[in-house]
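Retro notes, structure queue

What went well: the backlog is down to a handful. What didn't: a couple of records were mislabeled last round, so from now on we paste the full input next to the output in the thread. Example, using Acyl-CoA carboxylase subunit epsilon from Kribbella speibonae:
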Amino acid sequence: MIEIRKGNPTPEELAALVTVLAARAAAPAPAPDPDRASNWATYWRNARTPFHPGPGQWRASAHP
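Corresponding output:
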């Protein structure tokens, strides 16, 4: 049920709102992204040491 709390919409405006809400509710769920990285790639992305910026950190950036 839809309750109008403010304003005075016309019947056409209400019909448009109901149509949009019904179409949104009936839309299928989005498909999963086929280009998702593999679990191996995701592991290395999350396992690397995070970079902490600060004074003198540029020196440490050259060391593995």
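Agreed that this is the format going forward. Reviewer comment attached to the example: Residues 11-61 form one domain.
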